[in-house]
Amino acid sequence: MPQLTTTTPPAPAPVKRSTLTKNQLPGWAMWAVLAGSLILGAALSSLIGFHIATWALFSALIYVAAGYFVTLSVEGARKAKDRFATNLVYAAFIVALLPLVSVIVTVLAKGIPGLTPHLLYYSMNGMTGTVDNETVANGTPVIGGVYHGIVGTLLITTWATIISVPIGLLTAVYLVEYSKGGTLARAITFFVDVMTGIPSIVAGLFAAAFFGLVFGPGTRTGFVAAVALSVLMIPVVVRSTEEMLKIVPNELREASYALGVRKWRTILKVVVPTAISGIASGVTLAIARVIGETAPLLVTAGFVNSINWNVFGGWMATLPTFIYRQLMNPTSPTNTDPSAQRAWAAALILIIFVMLLNLVARLIARIFAPKSGR
Amino acid sequence: MSNTLTEGGAKGRAGDKVFSNLTLLAGCLILLVLFAVAVFLLVQALPAFTADPAKVTGGEGFWSYIWPILIGTLVAAGIALLIATPIGIGVALFISHFAPRRLAQSLGYVVDLLAAIPSVVYGAWGVAVLAPALVPVYEWLAANAGWIPIFAGPASQTGKTMLTAGIVLSVMILPIITSLSREIFLQTPKLHEEAALAMGATRWEMIRMAVFPFARAGVVSAVMLGLGRALGETMAVALVLSGGILTASLIQSGNQTIAAEIALNFPEAFGLRLAELIAAGLVLFVITLAVNMIARWIISRHKEFSGAN
Predict the structure, then answer these.
(1) What average pLDDT score do residues A148-153 get?
(2) How far apart are CA A20 and CA B303, in angstroms?
(3) Where is the ABC transmembrane type-1 domain (chain B) (predicted)?
């Protein structure tokens, strides 16, 4: 790095300094290195055609290297290694933030224009490619909406919750209150953990295969999708409920037993109410996890353009599959813009749902947290 | 929690029995479901294994059909791990040991937000933003590093390649690796850290001497769990990758993963094709199950002295 000599701060030799701060870089040194790196990075980047990405990349590389060598020359090898690692850790964090910011900005920028009342209150029933072609040709607002998708998402998620919550809760109660760390309990804990890692598409295939065997091949309804989602949801509910039940103080149980209350009543009237805020927020987070699942819905619920309120009969559209279909098979193959606009608006709605659920979960946990039984 | 006072006495015992059996039933149901997943997949997949090899897609039997997409799955997950592991550990370290304490918790939330974004949105972002942005990079790679087989040109003009899919996957598994590693880093005994610092270690030396040895098992299992997620991720790959036959080059279109293959073909599939796809799902299930079991086994083995959980 021959260019570096221009950016390094002047050697500290001529200045009189206390021995305590000897061999230490002054506080502004790193800022100077950063400024030098930015300038050098801009110069290098403009050599190959200036672009903000290459500028940032070159500057970062130069900064990390220069920081190392400057520190090495003044403070020694150990401090230099420390500086190098610190810079890398900061860089990792910035790199990790980039996609998050990019995703959110993209969804907002592309989703907000499409987010019209029409989109929210109408389905895609009767929408054909010709309609979209006319829309583009005449420059009129995009019509066709995601009402059917919102209905489907809410219904399927509700049913998945209805299936998962009792099973998950009872299992957690078994693990915490009844099992005494036996083989069965350890097996359940282990396989619940393993279930968290089941690929969502496999859960979908399972539900499809199960209902295919029982009700004939090709059975696709909202309920099949709900079963698939509950396979993904149950382990999350079990884990969070288990954690919450574990932190209920034993004194509460013992006090209840001392009053002669039966164990099952103790659990229902003392243990669960004490932990209810944590359980509720865990369930909400579990819902947030499955509401955005796409793959299992694709293979279990099918896809339609019209509104279907019946989870037990007929195919059902959902927000995630709507997004997927609009992007992959646009309504009008020649004019894909209206489809893309609808898809991004639907993505925005979906993200709002998920974020709201996360927020609700945190609020529940915070508001009801210091509850001391009913 | 056994208590002699609650035992004995006929009144109310029925309630106890019913309730405890109910909870036991729920627990067993979960085991049953996992078992059923395997059994039903196996039953429905059977035709694909026994069918005349000429009738299976590709015409050479099921295993030569599954082989290329299995490789594709492993490659995509491998790319994702290669990118996400160092960054994930870096972010976890940043939150646990570098960021100002007041900032650290909200940063943790921000990373958790990454996990909350649905996969289809990541896929859409990958197609609309990331893929076009990577086209010039791929062209540069094809021109300057084309002699390496994985960067062989001509580069894809849409950017919908294996490498893009891998990068999107890495973004998706980053929060998993980060949040698990962070928890473990935070549980390093404070005394170990302070002892290292008191001996004059720099922060990095302290992390290497006190934090990493303590957290190694937990980080390994966090990475394994990330791998499990990357292997099974469907929508991002289905949207981002313009699939095809197995190719060595990561910057051309081509390759396919099991999960995306299922998602793309299932809606139109019937008969033997359906069985093939379910069999592919079974293969994926077995692989992810193995990865997850190894990860959980590592965690449980080191539970006593590390906070990995």
Answers:
(1) 88
(2) 44
(3) 70-295
Q: Considering the domain boundaries, does residue B207 fall inside one? A: yes
What's the predicted TM-score (pTM) here?
0.84
Tokens standing for residue B22: 């109910």
Does the ipTM surpass 0.90?
Answer: no
Contact of B117 with A99, CB cutoff 8 Å: no
Determine, for residues A257 and B110 on separate chains, whether the beta-carbon distance falls below 8 Å: no
CB contact under 8 Å between B15 and A200, yes or no, is no
Q: Which CATH number does the domain housing residue B116 bear? A: 1.10.3720.10
Search chain B and give the residue with CA nearest A320. Answer: B120
How many domains does the structure of chain B reveal? 1
Specify the amino acid at residue B240: V
Owning domain of residue B124? 51-301
Closest-approach residue (CA) in chain A for B267? A299
Is B44 inside any structural domain? no
Q: B140 or A20: whose pLDDT is higher?
A: B140
Closest to B174 in 3D by CA, of A97, A355, A288, A356 = A97
B218 near B180, Cβ under 8 Å? yes
As given in the structure block, the two tokens for residue B179 are 């949040």
**Closest Cα in chain B to A93:** B91
Q: Where are the domains of chain A?
A: 2-113, 147-367
- CATH fold, domain A147-367, is MetI-like fold (1.10.3720)
Nearest to A329 by CA among A142, A138, A122, A129: A129
- Nearest in space to A285 (alpha carbons), one of A359, A352, A366: A359
Please give the Cα distance from B50 to B72 (Å, whole number). 24
Among the partner-chain residues B44, B90, B204, the one whose CB lies closest to the CB of A82 is B204
Stretch B285-307: mean pLDDT, rounded? 75
Tell me which residues of chain A, numbers 212 to 231, contact chain B at a CB-CB cutoff of 8 Å.
212-213, 217-218, 231
Measured between CB atoms, which of A92, A234, A294 is closest to B120? Answer: A294
